[in-house]
Amino acid sequence: MNMRLLLLLLFGSVVMYTSCQSTSALIDSLAARVTENTSKGQILFRLVTDEADPAKDYFEIDSKDGKVLITGNSDLSLATGLNWYLKYVAGIHLSWNNPSQKLPEVLPLPQKKIRQATAMKNRYYLNYCTYSYSMAFWDWERWEKEIDWMALHGINLPLAVVGEECIWFNMLKKLGYSKEEINKFISGPAFMAWWEMNNLEGWGGPNPDSWYEQQTALQKKILKRMREYGIEPVFPGYSGMVPHDAKEKLGLNVTEPELWNGYLRPAFLQPTDSRFKEIAALYYKEQEALFGKANYYSMDPFHEAKGIEKVDLDAAGKAVMDAMKKVNPKAVWVVQGWTENPREDMIKNMKNGDLLVLDLFSECRPMWGMQPSLWYREGGYGSVAY
Question: How many CA atoms lie within 13 A of 6 on its CB side?
Answer without folding.
Answer: 3
